[in-house]
Amino acid sequence: MLIVGNEFNRSMGLGNKLFSWARAYCTTQILGAIQIEPRWFAFRNAALSRGGINYRHLFGKIFLYNNFKSDPMAINRLSLEIQSWLGVNQHQKHYLSDLSDLTRHHFSDQDVIIFKADQAHDFSDLAEHRDAIKQKLEQLSKGSVHEQFLLEPFIAVNYRSGNDFKSHAVNSSQAKTDLYWFIHAVDRVRQQYGNLPVQVITDGAPHHLADLSRSIGGCQIHQFSTAIEDLLFLSKAKVLLASGNSSFSAWASFLSGADSFSSKNTPLDKWRVNTGNPNQIIGIID
């Protein structure tokens, strides 16, 4: 059987891990391959030491412990490794960057396709599979959907406070979206979309967000226990205010299809979120 899997770098958060996972999952639909069960959990020492996060949810949001159910359609990684070690199955591995690479190879039932962890971090090849990816994530999530907050359209704020982004970064790709930009952007978005409630998803602790909650009327700050709960909640938004350098925010925009805005200093457009979806606005608010 043709097998497909993905690489994860231990330092990666959920957003970056999802790129290679999603390509592996899409390959099961395109080629009828069997996916290797991912190892989502990882001890991320850098995120722990840099700080700026809510340590109360360290395991669920940073280490990705207990985010996902076991996938009944996937093959157990340990079982596959044991078979290989015993010489039962000798597979040839093909390391690919994105789904377009599938057309450049002829695969046999004895092959393993591995999508690389650190390449093709954009959505240009995933656009047509958005609904299937979202449905699969909802099936695998251990968290609830929190329907009580979804009774009316809302503006979602995804504020990344962790110090893996820098307030005064030399490299713009490492810059943190300023907290006060979100306060300003909410006013601008409400002028266009109406006085919608604001739902905030963040990796920050409550004391990081005091100014946000004081300055925005109709604002709720959520502290769900896992990263996948946060992401699926954001995927229900009508409008998204994103931390533009965050792949997590990019995934929220992609899965929701919501009109999404970022700051001039941390633009969201580099992720190619709305490839194939011209009705979705990816904009800048100064």
Outline:
The protein is α/β, with parallel strands linked by helices and 286 residues long. The protein has 9 helices and 10 strands.
State the distance separating the first and last CA atoms. Answer: 52 Å
CATH architecture identity of the largest domain: 3-Layer(aba) Sandwich
- Specify the number of helices: 9
Q: What is the level 1 CATH name of the largest domain?
A: Alpha Beta
Could you tell me the CATH topology label of the largest domain. Answer: Rossmann fold
Structural class: alpha/beta
Instruction: Determine Rg (CA atoms, Å).
Output: 19 Å
Features:
single chain, 286 residues, alpha/beta, Rossmann fold, 2 domains, 6-stranded parallel β-sheet, 4-stranded parallel β-sheet
Characterise the protein shown here.
The protein has 286 residues and is an alpha/beta fold. It folds into two domains: 3-140, no CATH class; 147-285, 3-Layer(aba) Sandwich (Rossmann fold), CATH 3.40.50.11350. The chain has helices at 14-31, 45-50, 58-62, 77-86, 130-140, 179-193, 210-215, 227-234, 247-256; strands at 3-6, 34-35, 92-96, 111-115, 155-159, 198-202, 219-222, 239-241, 259-263, 282-285. Helix 1 crosses helix 9. The termini are far apart. The mean pLDDT is 91.
Task: Outline the secondary-structure elements.
Blueprint: E1 3-6, H1 14-31, E2 34-35, H2 45-50, H3 58-62, H4 77-86, E3 92-96, E4 111-115, H5 130-140, E5 155-159, H6 179-193, E6 198-202, H7 210-215, E7 219-222, H8 227-234, E8 239-241, H9 247-256, E9 259-263, E10 282-285
Parallel strand pairs: 1-2, 1-4, 3-4, 5-6, 5-8, 6-7, 8-9, 9-10
